[in-house]
Amino acid sequence: xxxxxxxxxxxxxxxxxxxxxxxxxxxxxxxxxxxxxxxxxxxxxxxxxxxxxxxxxxxxxxxxxxxxxxxxxxxxxxxxxxxxxxxxxxxxxxxxxxxxxxxxxxxxxxxxxxxxxxxxxxxxxxxxxxxxxxxxxxxxxxxxxxxxxxxxxxxxxxxxxxxxxxxxxxxxxxxxxxxxxxxxxxxxxxxxxx
Length: 194
Fold this sequence. Notes:
By secondary structure, the protein is an alpha+beta fold. It has one domain (2-190): Jelly Rolls. 18% of the residues lie in helices and 31% in strands. The chain contains three helices and eleven strands, in the order αββββββαββββαβ. The chain has helices spanning 2-15, 98-105, 174-186; strands spanning 27-28, 31-34, 39-41, 48-51, 57-60, 78-84, 115-118, 127-136, 147-156, 159-168, 189-190. The chain has a seven-stranded antiparallel β-sheet, with helices on both faces. A four-stranded antiparallel β-sheet has the order 1-2-3-11. Strand 9 and strand 10 form a beta hairpin. The two termini are 29 Å apart. Mean pLDDT is 84; it is low at 1-25.
């Protein structure tokens, strides 16, 4: 999923968003809308938010111009991108359960850092079967930036989703980012009329 974080950063530049604002075409009352999947989120203050080409939310906490094409986040940088299981490449991934999807994503992990547990979602989200997984992304070279990934997986209106958070290991705001991910996902709301 690390490649998705890069894609998220690239998408933000294409969206032409500004910090603290949302893509005006898919926002209503300060919420980012995914019309295709029938939900909305409320982006945190100071984060740039929009939707990618698959109509899923993408958020970054730094100017898109400071992003690197080499999978490197700027100092203090974090990315959150939403993924729908039905948009994953390959037929096999589309048939796995939520726990299997989380375990698949963990193939990038340093095994000693993996933690996973159930994740409580409020009834207002319309979501169920949620779980959270967290781990340090394994590096293969001392030159690679060491990143941490925390992801929440859930079922909503018969479809399955994940929200992936990436930040640099050792970032003093790590707990804040993870709390923000939890709040963001628990703030998912169905669009009316779906």
